[in-house]
Amino acid sequence: xxxxxxxxxxxxxxxxxxxxNEWAKITHDDRLIFEILILETMQxxxxxxxxxxxxxxxxxxxxxxxxxxxANYDLKKENELMQNDGIIRNKLKIESFSKNAKSFIEVxxxxxxxxxxxxxxxxxxxIVNKVxxxxxxxxxxxxxxxxxxxxxxxxxxxxxxxxxxxFLQATGIINDHLNECFAKYL
Length: 186
Hints:
- The protein is mainly alpha-helical.
- It has a single domain, classed as Endonuclease III, domain 1 (Orthogonal Bundle).
- Helix content is about 55%, strand content about 0%.
- It has helices at about 15-20, 30-45, 50-60, 65-70, 75-80, 90-110, 115-120, 140-155, 160-170; strands spanning about 125-130, 175.
- A two-stranded parallel ribbon has the order 1-2.
- It is globular and about 50 Å long.
- The model has no long low-confidence stretch (mean pLDDT about 95).
């Protein structure tokens, strides 16, 4: 029997695996949350598949998304990353790595974890939307606008409302799987 999935218009195995095993799955692991946050900032303006195909390259280039190490990235490291053809070489986004890592650490220090901070916006309850077709899914909401403003106030870069909404989906804070998708309640 064929699995019914969200209609992402792709048969790419990596994307299907991501859909089946990661997307909208709740995570409370700050390291993974930070990885997703950085990958979402890199995705802005590109397809998610492009980022997924480079994910391992990012892990190698960015010290496995160790925010403590990334907070100390300097001009030498940024120049090294600009030469790395395994990642997207957007100068402004690369320059944001250190700032976002520092801001992430500041939030962790204030709230004891980034997880506690981000889940506080939804009272620690996953939002499960009723989605009949992909066109029903929002690209941003009042929630993503609110969080984006708060993140920017805290010094984060490249986290507008659309990117934040994608981040909320990716970390399982929002579940936008189609109602008939087998992964909706896994």
